[in-house]
Amino acid sequence: MLPFNHIPFTHSQKQILQTIKKDLFMWNECSFEQLYPQGFEEKYSGKQLAKKVFEHYTTEHKKLQNKQNDYSDFKSVTYTPRKYSFTTKQKEGFGLGSCPVASESTRCCNLLTLDAVESCGFDCSYCSIQSFYNQDTIVFDKNFAKKLENLELDEHEIYHIGTGQSSDSLMWGNREGVLDALFTFAKKYPNVILEFKTKSSNIEYFLEHEVPKNIIVTWSLNTQTIIDNEEHLTASLEKRIQSARALADIGILVGFHFHPIVVYQNYLDEYKEIYDSLLNTFSPDEVVLISMGTLTFIKPVMKKLRERGMKSKILQMPFEQIAGKQSYPLEIKKEMFQHCYESFQPWHGKVYFYMCMEDHSLWEECFGYSYASNNQMEEMMKMSYMQKINTIKSSI
Ligand code: SF4
Predict the structure, then answer these.
(1) Which of 195, 102, 90, 68 is nearest to 144 (CA)?
(2) Which residues are 194's β-sheet partners?
(3) pLDDT at residue 57 above 80?
(4) Residue 81 pLDDT > 90, yes or no?
(5) Which of 68, 139, 160, 262 has its C-alpha lying 20 to 30 A from 311's C-alpha?
(6) What is the per-residue pLDDT for 1?
(7) What pLDDT is attached to residue 301?
(8) What pLDDT shows up at residue 130?
(9) CA torsion angle for 35, 41, 47, 52 (degrees, to 10)?
């Protein structure tokens, strides 16, 4: 409810003011009431007062939105873990399909996604899964292993399949035999590049079982500042890198996704520390990919996030509408992606680098090269991954 019913706002003004009120709470900035313009009631009345008060709030909201984020005042914020339950049921269909956010209007790798588990136990504020699935229930498919066993693939085709889109690939371990089924599938089809993507450190199953060489394990990495404030319940940065190191030690190809790179005070310095630690912790032969991306919101996710009323600064950013989604302006993206790519200069030509669902123009500007189509990007990516997989195989 707005704290001033006596002002005759229009219905749409009320809706926008409600959103501003939610944002101010989420951003942990001043309260909506504190922002109320003093002295306006003496100067204006009726519709004129409504117009002036509305303009004041939208202007102040824009200023706060464009202000560079600073998490130093977030230390006092406590996060209340959300509760969820598990269910195993007969699911319709199989959940193998094109990446749900892929599009021709951005440069994309045509990844195939396999929904081994539905919904995630981690709680990243910016995550789009929250608008796809009911977050309170983690769903396992009773017939997942059977369906995977019956899947017919063309043995002459190279497939790149990821399981980390509908849930975290490793956080559930081998619950309901999901990892048993996926390992059997990878063994049956050496022409499948099977990618497990995770923010966890739950690698026991990989340490205790023989891992097919066409399985790659990739970590989404972020600064500890963002992990603490926006990636709730996930493993720490250190634990993620240690887990990757442990798997690389037993010959499993690993990779790292910097997605989303988030802008806040001194963000480039904090990301640089991670880039440098990877260069010092891994050799390029062990790393199959480095990807980068940033915050990109569709309306349902922004609505869900505001409804949840959790403390987060993730929507406090200078938005621009790009390819039907809200994201940082291209200039800011260029800064963060150039910085990331240049920081890995020693690995250029030895590791596959890509930007995930980004504007075509950024490739030439940030990497100095670009692809003519998503199919060409897909081919180059698969070729690079398969070369590393075959190198590992021949070195055994
Ligand atoms: S580039 Fe990213 S969004 Fe596009 S298909 Fe690949 S994983 Fe999906």
Answers:
(1) 90
(2) 161, 215
(3) yes
(4) no
(5) 139
(6) 54
(7) 86
(8) 67
(9) -40
**C-beta neighbour count of 355 within 10 angstroms:** 25
Q: How many CB atoms lie within 10 A of CB 124?
A: 23
Does domain 85-394 match CATH 3.80.30.30? yes
Testing ligand 1's pocket by substitution, the residue of 103, 108, 261 carrying the most ligand atoms inside 8 A of its CB is: 108
Q: Strands 325-327 and 85-89, how do they pair? A: unpaired
* Degrees, nearest 5: CA angle 299-334-352: 95
Q: How many angstroms does the Cα of residue 119 sit away from the middle of ligand 1?
A: 19
**Residue with structure tokens 């690995």?**
347
181 lines ligand 1 (CB under 6 A): no
Pairing of strands 287-294, 320-322: unpaired
Positive or negative CA dihedral for 331, 337, 339, 342? negative
Domain extent listing, the chain: 11-67, 85-394
CA geometry: angle at 54 spanning 40 and 125, to 5°?
A: 130
If you take atom 4 of ligand 1, which residue's CA is the nearest one? 108
Tell which phi-psi region holds residue 163, choosing left (phi > 0), alpha (psi between -120 and 50) or beta: alpha
Pocket lining: 356 vs ligand 1, CB cutoff 6 Å: yes
Rounded Cα distance, 321 and 217, in Å: 33
The answer to whether residues 252 and 206 touch, using CB atoms and an 8 Å cutoff, is: yes
Measured from the CB, is residue 112 less than 6 Å from ligand 1? Answer: no
Atom of ligand 1 nearest to the CA of 99: 8
The predicted model scores a pTM of 0.94
Phi, psi angle pair for 220, to nearest 5°: -80, 120
